[in-house]
Structures are given as C-alpha cells and as structure tokens.
C-alpha cells in the first residue's frame, strides 16, 4: 500500500467497499437480501444472516485497517459511516412495515449491518484524528454487534422457520394465537426479539450503548466533519433503536399473541 498513489488506493478502497458492502446488504446494493431470505429454507436464512453478511464487514475492516491502512484517508471512513447510517435507517423503516415475517427479519439484517458500519466508519474517523481510545471503543462496539447479531438473528430465523413449518405461512396477518400452541417457539422468538430491539439485558443493548458512548464522547479535534456527522449518527442510532422496538413488538404481538386469524395458525403445533 505504501507504493500506491492516493488515487489508486482510494479507488481500490471504494471498489472493495462496493463488493463487500453488497455482500453485507448495504444500501444501495441491498436489493438481493430481502428477496433471498424469504425464499431460502429458514436454516439457510439463519446461516446467511448470521455468518455470510458478516464476512462483508470483515472484508471492509481488513482492507481499510490492514491492507490499505498506510494510505487511509478520512473521506474513506466518512463514506463508510454515511452508508452505514443510510442502511440502518432504510432497513428498519422497511422492517417496521413488513408483514412477511422472514422479509421483516431480512430488512432487520440490513439495519444491523448498517449499525456495524457506523461503528467501523466512526473508528476510522477517530483513528484519523489521533484518538486511538475512541477508535478502539467504536470498533469494539461494531464487532460486538456483529457477534450479537449473529446470535439473535440465528434464533429469530430458526423460530420463523418453526412458525412456517407449523402454519404453512409467513404472513403475520394470518397468524396469531401461537403462544398457546407453540410455547417454546414463542419464548425463543421473544428472547431474540428482546435482543434485536436493543433493550437491556439483551446483547444488542450492550453493543449499541458502547457505540453511542463512542460517538457522544467524540473529540472536537475532528473539526466540522465530526461536529456534523457524529450528532447525526447518534440520531440515526436512536431512531433505529426506537423503530426496532416497534418492529419486534409488532412481530411478536401480531404473530404470537391474540387469537388465530388463519386456519394454519389455528391448527399449529410445536416444531
């Protein structure tokens, strides 16, 4: 990397970001993700959402912090942070209006990968202004969220597969009443939903709280860029957390509580 010109290094980073970002389902290269997840078997959806999309984040981190670190410029990480914030906002807005259970979870993956990239981008920005402690905190929060997301999204997709196996449908409007007929699946989905909503004591809360702490405590040395981007990033994280709660309250309340609204739900059995 030391032998590359800034233009070549920047081009390489942007191209790698596009390739790895599409693997992670980042806006605007996300279109495949909400289409693929609902069609795949649920255990494959769990593998895709818990492991495959994380490799995109891994690629961005290795290229940006290791392979091209010598020539890393501030705008690289600003681009990562902005794309992450857009993805987080867009993904959760799509999830909150979805009635297909697996499509809802797929859009939630876009949101969570967006939050991870907000942390990665913030880490690079902090490193560029010589603040290694905040850079380490932001990257730690991002990687913790990668691990946490892998755990709770696996649980949610497998629970969704159990519902699909038992009822023959993914449509939340045709479900309901599963709490009594599928108590174990209901309890496990509730556990995953708690973590995905970033509520304590879920693991999603820990990583998002650390990410917020790194952004809120950003130093003034970053100038105008930091003064503008960090408060906006905090707002995006707060908005996504609030809408995530609404999303999973809807999924759990409509899908598992109340009375059955379809024949499949009325005849459901535990997986």
Compact summary:
With 271 residues, the chain is mainly α. Helices cover 77% and strands 0% of the residues.
Would you write up a description of this structure?
The chain is an all-alpha fold. It contains eleven helices and no strands. It has helices spanning 6-24, 33-39, 42-67, 74-97, 101-128, 132-167, 178-181, 183-196, 203-216, 224-256, 263-266. Helix 2 packs across helix 5. The protein is elongated, with a radius of gyration of 19 Å. It starts with 5 loop residues before the first helix and ends in a 5-residue tail after the last helix. The mean pLDDT is 88.
The total count of strands amounts to 0
Overall helicity: over 70%
Sum up the overall morphology in one term: elongated
How much of the sequence lies in strands comes to: under 5%
Mean pLDDT: 88
Q: Structural class of the helix and strand makeup?
A: mainly alpha
**Major sheet characteristics:** none
Separation, N- and C-terminal Cα atoms:
53 Å
Annotation field: number of helices: 11
The SSE string, one letter per element, is HHHHHHHHHHH
Residue stretches low in confidence (pLDDT < 50, at least 5 long) are none
Rg (C-alpha, Å): 19 Å
Features:
271 residues, mainly alpha, 11 helices, 77% helix, elongated
